[in-house]
Write a structure and sequence with these properties.
2 domains, about 80% helix, about 0% strand, globular, transmembrane transporter activity, MFS, transmembrane
């Protein structure tokens, strides 16, 4: 039975749901302010009717540049914050590391709300909220903190299930957010929208502060604990984690686990970055509404797989974690080939259903890898994973968009065939990882390794 004070899934759901609403609202706000700077308030509502094509293109380009600036302004401080907060979470407090990204979100939304209420405030001041959010850790620290919390409290036998349910919150919250954000924004406007987003974040903060349990006991005062965030020893301990000697098989398993997740992110984020372009082009020629439904379906089926199918397979059939990963990679490979060959919208909508088992891979690889580190190394592991995953996400957009442009004349779906080849690498790495686990001393089955986690390795 799960203790209610250890249930952190609502924290991620509310965080990602409000983040999804914020992304849609922020892009709309920037687009509107950029338009008002280029055209007058009477002509901006007519921008999409084809009367001002050159101005529309210029505004879209400028908005895209601002979005890029916001992404970098969030990412760079988040990476620096994670250097300190990852080791801090292992040594001093799991709960404080959960609270800080929510505080950052509330601060950013408050800044956005003020700017949205006054048309005279330039777009550049939105960067204040973005940077403050990044300094509190942002998405990187939130995910690291939640993975560490779940791994800390969950017996290895049920760890994959809990990680799967946690991952499902990302997909389900995004599904709902994408479905309602546009309608809410159209009805309420930017300022009221930010007011509602603030409410969700404040509810999340109250839940985390008053319901979620602190896992690390200490006799230090809150002030001393907070000052410990900025200790240089935190960075030193992260470096020690990455370089310390381990048994050969343990080091190999850790490296392959991190490698598989990194390549998985490269593949999935790369596909995501060009799917909209692929769907809008002939012969599929999907509308904006259809594309929205496609992404909602994709997120829903991944969430359904993790919250319903994965627990059933683990509890009823005790399916091996890495076997589930291999099924997921096979489904991804088949789905990518189907997508590359798709000639109509119906085939495109079948692909997310074919790819359903891909949802297994995120939870299973993280679960298996986490069993090869000590309990005081969990946040460091997920911090390191978060760094590589965000780096892969940046590379994915550059590589896949560039490849899509270069190979479009050869075959419109060629980039998805490349994705299938990358998926084959993930399959190979998973098989090697499984073999290394079998060779580990005293490690017989992936459901019987509680003792290994707390051993010296």
């Amino acid at each position: 039975m799960v203790y209610i004070r250890n249930v952190v899934e609502p924290v991620l759901f509310l965080y990602m749901f409000s983040d999804c609403l914020n992304i849609i609202t922020l892009q709309s706000l920037v687009y509107e302010r950029t338009c008002l700077k280029t055209l007058d308030s009477n002509r901006c509502p007519l921008l999409n009717n084809g009367s001002f094509q050159h101005e529309e293109i210029a505004i879209q380009v400028q908005t895209s540049k601002w979005v890029l600036h916001f992404n970098m302004a969030l990412l760079i401080p988040s990476i620096i914050a994670a250097l300190f907060l990852g080791p801090f979470g292992d040594a001093f407090s799991r709960k404080i590391v959960l609270i800080l990204p929510i505080v950052g979100n509330i601060t950013a939304i408050f800044v956005f709300l003020i700017i949205s209420a006054f048309d005279s405030i330039p777009v550049i001041y939105l960067l204040i909220g973005v940077v403050l959010n990044g300094c509190c850790g942002g998405h990187i620290v939130m995910m690291m903190a939640l993975y560490s919390y779940i791994v800390h409290i969950t017996d290895v036998k049920y760890r994959t299930i809990r990680l799967g349910i946690l991952e499902s919150m990302v997909f389900l919250s995004t599904t709902i957010g994408m479905l309602v954000a546009g309608m809410m924004l159209k009805s309420l406007g930017h300022t009221a929208m930010y007011g509602i987003i603030s409410i969700f974040n404040i509810l999340n903060l109250f839940y985390t502060v008053f319901v979620v349990e602190e896992l690390i006991e200490t006799d230090k005062s809150t002030g001393k604990i907070l000052r410990s965030i900025f200790l240089i020893e935190n960075i030193k301990s992260l470096y020690t984690f990455m370089t310390q000697k381990r048994k050969s098989n343990t080091r190999t398993v850790l490296l392959f686990g991190i490698l598989i997740l990194s390549v998985l992110i490269l593949m999935t984020k790369g596909e995501f970055s060009i799917i909209q372009l692929f769907l809008r082009h002939s012969p599929i020629s999907a509308s904006v509404t259809q594309i929205g439904y496609f992404f909602s379906l994709q997120n829903f089926v991944y969430g359904f797989t993790l919250i319903i199918i994965l627990p059933l397979l683990k509890k009823c059939f005790s399916v091996n974690d890495l076997a589930l990963s291999l099924v997921g990679f096979a489904a991804q490979g088949i789905g990518s080939i189907m997508f590359g060959l798709a000639q109509n919208i119906t085939t495109a909508f079948i692909v997310p259903v074919v790819k359903m088992p891909l949802g297994f891979t995120y939870a299973t690889i993280r679960s298996v890898t986490s069993t090869f580190v000590n309990i005081d190394e969990e946040a460091k592991l997920f911090t390191f994973m978060a760094y590589l995953e965000n780096l892969m996400a940046l590379l994915a957009s550059l590589c896949f968009n560039g490849l899509y442009s270069l190979t479009f004349d050869i075959h419109q779906g060629f980039v998805f065939f490349v994705s299938t080849a990358i998926c084959s690498l993930c399959t190979l790495f998973t098989v090697v990882m499984w073999f290394q686990i079998k060779q580990s001393n005293g490690y017989k089955d992936l459901d019987e390794h509680q003792e290994l986690q707390h051993s010296g390795k």
